[in-house]
Amino acid sequence: MELIFLKLGGSLITRKDKPFTENRRIIRQIAREIHQAKKGKPFRLLIGNGGGSYPHVPAKKYKTAKGIINKNSLKGIVEVQDAAARLNRIIVRALLDAGENAVSVQPSAVALTKNSRIIEFYTKPLEVFLKKNIIPVIYGDVSLDLKQGCSIVSTEELFIFLAKKIKPKKIISAGMVDGVFTADPLKDFKARLIPEINLKSYPKIKKMLKGSAGIDVTGGMLIKVEKYLETSLLGIKSYIINGTVEDRLKKTLLGKEIKGTIIKR
Fold first, then answer.
1. Contact predicate 159/231, CB 8 Å
2. Same domain, yes or no, for 64 and 144?
3. Per residue, what are the HEC states of 105-166?
4. Over the stretch 108-129, which tens digit does the pLDDT of each residue have?
5. If we measure between CA atoms, which residue out of 158, 157, 100, 97 comes closest to residue 126?
6. Which domain covers residue 106, as residue numbers?
7. Which terminus of the chain, N or C, has less C-beta within 10 A?
């Protein structure tokens, strides 16, 4: 049975301008579309959600991504973990209410990092959940880091590590925009959608995403693209789509052609 990884972006499932505020309507829509898709076609699913306005608040306050840097860093670790877990439980509850069997998997309890890259992740329980057709829901989380004490591990980083272990057929990343654009479409009306990115075309596209100032002008999309190019080396195609558009996620899960960006080798 086909295995799909699904990333739910933090900006999609929370309101980034309001700390600790989830987007309940979108979360319910996503859960409903997943349930409808699974009734239409059998597949196994692993979900990873971003943190958005939940863990980003304490992570910024305590500079958790920089490691254990002062006496407040340990407080930062537990506050970030708590915030990330609270948002994850909301996602899991929505899936249960929609009729799916889903379970939370806490990365900070099973993973270790070194310089923010995962070096250990105990995957056996997760693999058993998948075999039983239960949806594991992981999330961007704090981690114990062997080099800097602690770090933030993103959902994309989790996907890269897990893709090497359990090899999904494809990865879907659902966010607020239709895919990868030549500039930030939320700020530049001249931005054009890039329908496909591969290893050959990426150097040229990277210059567009960086812009003349040499910084990421697409709201963090550059890092996301580079992570999914890394998984493309495993022969896995990734799709970046707009999760706010009704039925777009469902169609992508079912393998139907949709508007978005495909990233492949």
1. yes
2. yes
3. CCHHHHEEEECCEEEEECCHHHHHHHHCCCEEEEECEEEEECCCEEEEECHHHHHHHHHHHH
4. 999 999 999 999 999 999 999 9
5. 158
6. 1-168
7. N
CATH number of the domain residue 227 falls in: 3.40.1160.10
| 238 lies in the same domain as 158 | no
Q: Are 127 and 95 in contact (CB under 8 A)?
A: no
- Is 131 in the same domain as 189? no
Location of structure tokens 């039925």 = 247
Q: Which tens digit of pLDDT belongs to each residue from 54-69?
A: 999 999 999 999 999 9
Instruction: State the Cα–Cα distance between residues 88 and 209, nearest whole angstrom.
Output: 30
Are 140 and 201 found together in one domain?
no
Mean pLDDT, rounded, of the chain: 93
Q: Buried b / exposed e across 241-250, counting CB within 10 Å, b at 16+?
A: bbbbeeebbb
Structural domain ending residue among the three candidates 107, 140, 168: 168
Number of domains in the chain: 2
Lowest mean pLDDT among 35-39, 87-91, 206-210, 256-260: 206-210
Q: Please check whether residues 204 and 88 belong to one and the same domain.
A: no
Same domain? 30 vs 139 = yes
Tokens of 182: 């030549």
Q: Which two tokens stand for residue 147?
A: 């080099």
Same domain membership, residue 29 and residue 157: yes
Min mean pLDDT across 38-52, 84-98, 145-159, 176-190 is at: 176-190
The amino acid sitting at 235 is G
Asked if the model's pLDDT at residue 166 lies above 50, the reply is yes
Task: Name which of 2, 34, 50, 47 is nearest 170 in CA terms.
Answer: 2
Is pLDDT above 70 for 217?
A: no
User: Do 161 and 181 lie in a common domain?
Assistant: no
